[in-house]
Amino acid sequence: MAGRLEGQSALVIGGARGIGEAIAQRFVEEGARVTVADWLEAPGEATAARLGGNFVKVDISQMADAEAAVAKASEATGRLDILVQNAGIYPYTLIEHISPQEWDSVLAVNLKGTFLAARAALVPMKAQRSGRMIFTSSITGPRVTSPGHGHYSASKAGINGFIKAAAIEFANYGITVNGVEPGNILTDGMKAERSADFIAGMEASVPLGRLGTPRDIANAFLFLASDEAAYITGTTIIVDGGQTLPEGPDFRLPG
Ligand SMILES: NC(=O)c1ccc[n+]([C@@H]2O[C@H](COP(=O)([O-])OP(=O)(O)OC[C@H]3O[C@@H](n4cnc5c(N)ncnc54)[C@H](O)[C@@H]3O)[C@@H](O)[C@H]2O)c1
């Protein structure tokens, strides 16, 4: 099925690579015009060019940048139909070694960035009385966690709380607010930030027997952006190959 987002304008923040790039691509395949926003200039421009969209360089932890991204995405038609805030950072640090500065930097991108993106996108969406806001959360924080994820877990659990609060405030304007909780997805960021042993351990813990792909996640974003999700708001979809299901490590059937 193609054309599910025909003629719609979408902003994908953190769209230069990885999961965000796959979301932008999936939206374009379904007929959306996509603006890619990212703080990585060259990969962001390359992704936008490949998808026939615009690029805007932003640091989503800054309010003026969030507003500039929304302005760029809505400049052609005055409309912003879909907001995706996917930018996130995930340094691995044990809590005893997390400096207050590192704590602030993770919360600034992952959680404050989500609030700033929503605040900026609300302006055109409220005026047009419609819109979809979709945020990248994680299973890490809201459902499970592992050592080294103190700040990250707090930021992603915070996103889930914010989704509920924004959904109830924006419902009156015809705007839905939802999120996706990816499991472990093999991306450039994941390869850079996590050891091969960590990645292999995660893979072994997935009942469906593999790590996720960016496209697995992008398909859930597409659903939440589509007409089929019109009555869904204030919630998240877990896309993790069943990783959060086992009660213990010994879950595989013999043979
Ligand atoms: N890969 C996984 O296993 C996984 C699992 C759960 C959740 N997530 C979440 O998915 C999202 C994408 O992760 P990914 O693995 O594709 O990572 P990635 O590093 O490959 O991509 C993240 C993108 O966000 C951009 N970005 C980071 N900080 C930014 C900022 N301040 N302003 C603008 N852009 C910024 C990066 O430049 C990059 O293009 C993140 O929010 C991450 O927390 C990833």
Please describe the topology of this protein.
Elements: E1 9-13, H1 18-29, E2 33-38, H2 41-51, E3 54-57, H3 63-74, E4 82-85, H4 100-128, E5 131-136, H5 150-170, E6 175-182, H6 188-193, H7 196-204, H8 214-225, E7 236-239
Parallel strand pairs: 1-2, 1-4, 2-3, 4-5, 5-6, 6-7
Helix pairs in contact: 1-8, 3-4, 4-5
Mean pLDDT across every amino acid position: 97
Radius of gyration: 18 Å
User: What class would the helix/strand composition place it in?
Assistant: alpha/beta
* Strand segment tally: 7
How large a portion of the residues is in β-strands, by DSSP E? 5-15%
Could you tell me how far the N terminus lies from the C terminus, measured between alpha carbons in angstroms?
A: 38 Å
Question: Treating each run of at least 4 consecutive H or I residues as one helix, how many helices?
Answer: 8
Comma- or semicolon-separated keywords:
single chain; alpha/beta; Rossmann fold; globular
Any overview of this molecule?
There is one protein chain. The chain has helices at 18-29, 41-51, 63-74, 100-128, 150-170, 188-193, 196-204, 214-225, and strands at 9-13, 33-38, 54-57, 82-85, 131-136, 175-182, 236-239. The mean pLDDT is 97. Helix 5 links the parallel strand 5 and strand 6. With 255 residues, it is of the alpha/beta class. It has a seven-stranded parallel β-sheet with strand order 3-2-1-4-5-6-7, with helices on both faces. It starts with 8 loop residues before the first strand and ends in a 16-residue tail after the last strand. The chain has a single domain, classed as 3-Layer(aba) Sandwich (Rossmann fold). The chain is globular and about 55 Å long. The protein contains eight helices and seven strands, in the order βαβαβαβαβαβαααβ. The longest helix is centred in the middle third of the chain and has 29 residues, at 100-128. Nicotinamide-adenine-dinucleotide is lined by residues 14, 16-20, 38-40, 58-61, 86-90, 109, 136, 138, 182, 184-185, 187-190.
